[in-house]
Amino acid sequence: MLNFIARRILATVPVLGIVAVLVFLLLRLTPGDPAAILAGDAASSEQIARIRVSLGLDQPILVQFGIWLGHVLTGDLGESFFYKVQVTELIAQRLEPTLSLAVLTIVFAVTVAVPLGVIAAWRFGGWFDRALMGFSVMGFSVPVFVLAYILIWIVSLKLGWLPVQGYKRIADGFGPYLQHLILPSITLSVIFIALIARVTRASVLEALGEDYIRTARAKGLRESKVLIRHALANAAVPIVTVIGIGIALLIGGVVVTESVYAIPGLGRLTVDAVLARDFPTIQGVILFFSLVYVGVNLAVDLSYVFLDPRIRY
Amino acid sequence: MNRKLFTTVLLATAAQLPFAAGNASAQANVLRVVPHSNLSILDPIWTTQYMARNHGYMVYDTLFGTDEKSQIKPQMVESWTVSPDKRLWSFKLRPGLEFHDGKPVTGEDVTASLARWGKRDAMGVALMTFVERMDSPTADSFRIFLREANGFVLEALGKPSSNVPFIMPKRVAETDPFKQIEDYIGSGPYVFKRDEFKPGDRAVYLKNAKYQPRAEPASGTAGGKHVYVDRVEWNLALRDVQAQANAIVKGEVDILESLSFDHYESMSKEKNVKVLKPTLGLQYMCRFNHLHPPFNKAEVRRAALASFDQRPFLKAQVGVDELYKPCASMFTCGTPYASSVGTDIQSKSTMRKAQELVKSSGYDGSAVVLMKPTDLQSIGKLPDVAAQLMRQAGFKVDLQAMDWNTVVSRRSKKDAPSAGGWNMFCTAWVAPDIWSPINNAALDARGDKSGWFGWPDGPKLEALRAQFMRETDEAKKKKLAEAIQAEAFSVATHAPLGEYVQPVAVRSNVTGVNMAGLANVYWGIKKN
Amino acid sequence: MPAPQLNANEMETLSVESADVRITESAWQRVKKSWSVRMGGAALLLLLLIAVSAPWLGTVDPTLFDAASRDLVPGGRGEITTLDGEIIKHKFWFGSDSFGRDIYSRVMYGTRVSLAVAVLAALLSLAFGIVCGLSAGYLRWLDGILMRFMDGLMAIPAILIAIALVAMWRGSLTTVVIAIAIPEIPRVTRLVRSLVLSIREEPYVEAAVALGTPTWKIMFWHILPNTIAPLVVQGTYICAAAILVEAILSFLGVGLPPSIPTWGNIMAEGRSQFNEYPHNIFIPGVFLAITVLAVNILGDGLRDTLDPKMAKRV
Fold it and tell me: What is the 3-state secondary structure (H, E, C) of C248-259?
């Protein structure tokens, strides 16, 4: 098993390497000059040219890549063109909001979706099942920002229950921290709930069709025990898989949610960096996200060991 | 287990809600501002971005300021003398001027700061061509020796907008002007709280308790800079326009630096919010690229100019009648050098006339590559109007949408439009940046070498500007300004599109906001 | 629903020979009878009709505007200035945006773009995915490199690739389609590859190899037909995702230029006025939601009838 983990970790290196190359090429080979943006509206062409040199953008691409890669391997993601701050520091600052949002969303989504899916499978074909399927398809179909605007209007403006925007660090008080995160999490979790509920329902359904369920019921076990201890447990693998996939989707939703709710997270950082052609930040953040993705995949694979005793590495 | 956790969390939140409300009184001395854009560069000499300028006004002080009547008034300077031949300017600094680290401000700090500024700012560069040398005979004085007399020394030293000659400590001012500074010690009314600065999230300024404001009342960027709050927080994360409006209505922020025109009417009706209009505003313009067809011919440019009736631009972009007015002049209407001399080609034109001019101009039919920014609310609609009007006049227009950053990087390219260049873009300037022939960058007509994008070539225009720089008599300067404007319209350097004011929204308990419209400054504000 | 009656044709084809052909024929029957496919298909057909006939549905040029007609509520009356300078009176069925453009016209024309983006992005990613998947599955030496590359591509969040691509180049139909298609390619590749790997072991493929059939023939005549069903299903999901991603790109300001109306950029331009004039967001939003819903339902129906094994996969 340790062997497996070690091998998997080694396997991530080429993946990350490819990510690095892809991102680097994407940025350098497309138009958009960070120097001009930095120089400001009234700058002259000569001034812009000087800034380009100071940012190292006048060197050939391979040289630029080599320099950057060298830095990355020592843990130095470079300095943002715009903020004169180390990229690693920027990421560290923005990590807490995005992580909080993501964790809260996942926790909320799983707690809501899994029971819903189980009940739908249990009452297969009934009104609850149809309603859930209907809701879940709709959940996929509405863009996140439309949902966000509607929720803000109803809950924050008309009812006044929660703030309209912003993020408060945990250090500034747990209450405000949670208050500011509730609405964004709910907004983001809708898609997640739709996804997880569907897959839960499908896998529990399949598990319910198995022989051991009949045996358990014949034994006289309580229905709730049948559902949870036997059906859900055996359906766990696909559910955890979809949670893993969902985390990748989460990043897309996070970008929009952070934009509408003014949360200073990594999603916003990336969008702002892309719009500002802040190459080091874009490279650094995408590399970071890829690392997270790879880590999540590894965690999901490892969890199979605990969920399904038949799986051994 | 999950259900219990969720319920616990929900109850905990509910229990905390009263706590959140209780914080309100502790916030009485924190001013929460939402600036018009993100703050990324903290060196107001290195860039002309308005955000850097506003940051500069928090942290630094200036030798002179401009008051609400556009008059230059002393700020850090106590008194000054000018030699009879106007070539020696001697200044004495106010007593008690100190940097945030406790060191006194000396003449050497001043000369170093001016030297750095004079290498970047257009007006500063112009001034430095006249300057033989600067020195500081005593700690509290400094002198400027000119090769020949000129009429704009004080205008330059007191210029309110980018780049402002802020005074920095000598060691900081000795930084290469093409590198950004890393030390933000100034002598201004606020201290920059560097450790709380989170790029893209917030910037924090604390009251400088040791700052000694002047005795006069605050006016424009001059007068006494009294600070009545303990702390100012700039919310850099709140960029969504609707969210900004929601936030100020709910009291989550105190000041919206630039209220979107779309929200002007509804915000004016809000009980707890005041909408303020500054005295001076901005001027819209569309800029031609003089290097490539079709706008490399003056007749074609003038034809386009003739089709640009200002009213559709203003109505589409601003929409609210009381916030805009047409202004035929290239200089801010209502300021000394504005006039209607030479403006007839645009202000007295009709679409008919424009169509005829297009036909007779020898327009070669090439498409006008017009860059449109998709993410800047304040100027985003101008290119659409320009495209529509030019099409009606008979031009072919290729309206290309891109984000503002791409516009900014593309407009610096001199390549042909089909090779990544451009023919036209539209923008807005604040009044102080265009109200005089010296600092109006659009009038720089040195062709390839001109300081701003577009590169108009007008030797006659340049000659007139050089004359203006040397002229010291005010009446003569006005006449020269008229001649300059007439020549500029003849060359068709750019198309002025009218003026507007940028409204500011503040909570009703906030008073003393500076509404001169020269720059966004945050002294003199009380939160009751 | 009554059980389907088998006609003579179908009885004949129930025989064991030509195994894959039988699957295709009765599968088509199953597909046609599926409620989901009917509903989804009908809705999409209607949208296609709208897209094609947009100029004749009482619309005006969607880029025309008149500042005097800005911010009208749905049903309001106003004016439009044509390119010739003519002023025509117009009823704004869906209201107008902050420029004074007719939202009804923009939504109708927007149908074209949304459908085009969806279909083109799906086709593009399927095409590349098929080529890569076939190559990886069948040509062993290419497998390792290609799959590593795909893993790398998958590791980058799709939305960030899309934003970066469109922001770096200009927003245009081509860039948006490419930007949406690229992140989908790895998933299609994986799907095709796993199908190839399993089909390769089938006896009829081994027989074909033994007979000396050239590789490309095997790929296109034996393997590819069996990938059609799951690929069609995957394609519909890509369509749904594409429409949503286009909306998000427009929302973030890196989508198609406003001169090409899409539902996404109508919403993006109206986002600052949501409280006052929600019709800017609601009306295109409803159209968008219905379209994506229809595509999703269609996809579900197709999946349930064509490839029930996929029900467990996402």
Answer: HHHHCCCCCCCC
Q: Do B524 and B225 meet the contact criterion of CB atoms below 8 Å apart? A: yes
**C143 to A8, A91, B12, C208: CA distances (angstroms):** 18, 35, 53, 22
- Is the residue at C185 inside a domain? yes
Neighbour-count burial of B270, counting CB atoms closer than 10 A to its CB (0-12 exposed, 13-18 middle, 19+ buried): middle
- C272, C273, C276: which to substitute to probe chain B, counting the most B Cβ within 10 Å? C272
Two tokens, residue A145: 């920002």
Which residue in chain B has the smallest CA separation from A276? Answer: B405
Q: How many angstroms separate the Cα of B412 from the Cα of each of B51, B367, B400, B422, C32? A: 21, 20, 16, 9, 59
- Beta-carbon separation of A37 and B452 below 8 A: no
Which of A85, A103, A165 to mutate against chain B (most B CBs within 10 Å)?
A165
| pLDDT tens for chain B, residues 1 to 528 | 455 555 555 555 544 444 444 444 455 589 999 999 888 889 999 888 889 999 999 999 999 999 988 899 999 999 999 999 999 999 999 999 999 999 999 999 999 999 999 998 888 988 999 999 999 999 999 999 999 988 899 999 999 988 899 999 999 999 988 888 999 999 999 999 999 998 889 999 999 999 999 999 999 999 999 999 999 999 999 988 899 999 999 999 999 999 999 899 999 999 999 999 998 999 999 999 999 999 999 999 999 999 999 999 999 899 899 999 999 999 999 888 999 999 999 999 999 999 999 999 989 999 999 998 887 888 989 999 999 899 989 999 998 887 787 788 788 888 899 888 899 999 999 998 899 998 888 999 998 888 788 999 999 999 999 999 888 888 999 999 999 999 999 999 999 999 999 999 999 999 999 999 889 999 999 998
* Residue C26 resides in a domain: no
R_g over Cα of chain B: 25
> Is C123 inside a domain boundary?
yes
| Six-digit token string for B378 | 């304040």
Cβ <8 Å between A160 and B406: no
**Residues spanned by the domain of C135:** 31-57+109-311
Helix (H) / strand (E) element for B496: namely strand B494-500
Substitution target from C156, C239, C262 for chain A, most A beta carbons within 10 A: C156
Query: Helix, strand, or coil here: B133?
Result: strand
Closest chain B C-alpha to C67 CA, distance in angstroms: 5
For C286, name the nearest residue in chain A, comparing CA atoms only: A142
Q: Is A16 helix (H, G, I), strand (E, B) or coil?
A: helix
- Partner A contacted by B235 (CB < 8 A): yes
Which residues in chain C have their CB less than 8 angstroms from residue B409's CB? none
Nearest in space to A151 (alpha carbons), one of A180, A175, A187: A187
The confidence band for A158, taking pLDDT boundaries of 50, 70 and 90, is confident
* Residue C91 domain flag: no
Rounded to two decimals, the ipTM of the complex is 0.82
Least CB–CB distance from B316: residue in C67, C254, C259: C67
CB C181 within 8 A of CB C174: no
Q: CATH no. for residue C286?
A: 1.10.3720.10
Chains in touch with C (≥3 Cβ pairs < 8 A): A, B
Number of folded domains in chain C?
A: 1
* C-beta atoms surrounding A264 within 10 Å: 25
Across the A:B interface, residue pairs with CB atoms under 8 Å apart total 172
Q: Does the beta carbon of B405 lie under 8 angstroms from any beta carbon of chain A?
A: yes
What is the spatial distance between Cα C272 and Cα B264, in angstroms, rounded to a whole number? Answer: 12
3-state secondary structure at position B86 = coil
Residues 283..322 of B with a Cβ closer than 8 Å to C: which? Answer: 312, 315-316, 319
Chain A residues with CB inside 8 Å of C151's CB? 15, 18
